[in-house]
Predict the structure.
Amino acid sequence: MPDYKKYQCGVCGHIYDEAEGDPDTGIAPGTLWEDIPDDWRCPECGAEKSEYDLMG
Amino acid sequence: MQIVIIGSGVAGVSFAEKYRALSADDEITLVTREHDGYYSRPLLSRGFSKADIEQSIILKPFDKLRENNINVLCGVEVTDIDRGDKTVAINGSCQEKELQYDKLILALGSSAFIPPPFRPFEKLFFCLNSLVDLKALRKFRQGFLSQNQRPEWAIIGGGLIGCEVASDLAVAGDKVTLFHAMDRLMERQLVAEDSALLLKVLQDSGVKVLLNQAVQEFIKEEDKVCVRTEVTTEFDGLLVACGFKPRTELAELAGLKIGRGIKVNQYLQTSDESIFALGDVAELPNNKLYAFILPIRNQALWLAEFLAEQKQDPWTPPVFTTKAKVHGFEAVHPRKIS
């Protein structure tokens, strides 16, 4: 099983957990960050992927 | 050009960063009463279930903005706007006492709204409107936890914040009673079916939900605080979550047109052509306030582009849905707002 990571939006704090995905915006559970389309936006605040940081 | 921004929430910070990205040379000064950096307000509602929240809620220390050539004056209050001289008077531990502006951006946000009947009792309850408030609540709660006790909470207000905090405290293991004046929860954001679902989710997590409540007063009883409706019930801690009030005081003092918020046109411009408003404080021509992260950030980015002369068309609100951060709740019919 892959080592799922978490990414946090630097604008609003929303957390994307690779294990959970974001089904509301069409991202299935288990979707790795790099596999999320570039035009995906933070579901909370609309920020772009580039605003997210990998959580340590 | 000298840009002065008042407020370090998502509006002020998003504007500052975007404007800096578009203009390498203009002077940008951001003034804020906050000390702790730029933090996530949505995460205040998760202030009890996450152990490291007081650190993890900080998204950007102010030094990060300074590294980006944004001058941040923190722990500072703005006391006056002199529209004739185009200066703001400031009060704090910084050297400056006055700042000159070409354009002034008012992004002060809102304070907790306290219904008039509760105002005589302000010493008896908490609000949750800032990181300072969260720290006070957590410290109060820790007092009980360190004695192996669980506080019993009353939350007044079953709107977005009331429901989110009730959920978070319950998940963290505390006993919570939620008092709401209306006959269903979050009646402004949810359709009836989702209010019913929300009620069930909260009850399943252990929250006692009381609807159609007319809270008359609060009474201090030794180390407890009582809520009086038709009956009187005692609690350890009381949180009032009855809405927000845009911070219009400074604008009003300066003679700008205000309504519920600071009145702006479709270009987010106040009744003074050099002063703009963003976020919770900005009241658009249709009397609408956009007090949610997505449209606020959208406003801030638009205004930066507009002032950098990269956009000419007025701001139009994006369509968005609000998500309640209640543990285990997902609205079946989320309402689109625009």
Residues 6 and 15 of chain A are 7 Å apart (CA to CA). The interface with chain B takes residues 8, 10-14, 43-47 of chain A (CB under 8 Å). Chain A has a mean pLDDT of 90.
